[in-house]
Amino acid sequence: MRLIPIAALAAVLAAPVLAQGPTTLQAVTTEGIVMKAYGMEFPVTYKPDGAFSATVGGNTITGTWRIDGERLCTRVEPDPEVCAAYPAGKRSGDTFDVPGAMGPQVGVVSVRIN
């Protein structure tokens, strides 16, 4: 019955990984966010298929997203892709600043995970 000790060992080794919970980018892309820029707040929703949508001033903007390490990369046609590093350890309800999340021309954007 070596299976039981091997299964127990696997469970012990996996426990730290399972206890860490989702990464910041996993929380962002599964829970959605509210971004704040130019004095306006707008919700952003990410879909598992790599599409996102944001509502800005009553208009819906759509695009694509992907994760590249600790960076979230987004693209709205015909603009080039924008990638921004998100801080580690954030979860639902947290608010933090992300430089370059809307491109270099916007600067720092405030982000709250839903």
Describe the structure.
- The chain is 23% helix and 42% strand.
- It is of the alpha+beta class and 114 residues long.
- It has one domain: Lipocalin, CATH 2.40.128.
- Strand 3 and strand 4 form a beta hairpin.
- The chain is globular.
- It starts with a helix and ends with a strand.
Observed structural traits:
alpha+beta; Lipocalin; 8-stranded antiparallel beta sheet
What's the helix and strand layout?
Blueprint: H1 3-20, H2 24-31, E1 33-37, E2 40-46, E3 51-56, E4 59-68, E5 71-75, E6 82-85, E7 95-99, E8 108-113
Concise summary:
This protein has 114 residues and is an alpha+beta fold. It is 23% helix and 42% strand.
Tally of structural domains: 1
CATH topological fold name: Lipocalin
Measured on Cα atoms, how large is the radius of gyration? 18 Å
Shape: globular
Beta-strand fraction estimate:
35-45%
Helix content percent band:
10-25%
Distance from first to last alpha carbon = 47 Å
SSE arrangement, N to C: HHEEEEEEEE
How many individual helices?
Answer: 2
Number of strands: 8
Strand order of the largest sheet: 6-5-4-3-2-1-8-7
Subunit organisation of the chains:
single chain
Summing up helix and strand content along with how strands pair, one would put the structural category as alpha+beta
| Mean pLDDT over all positions | 84
Overall CATH class: Mainly Beta
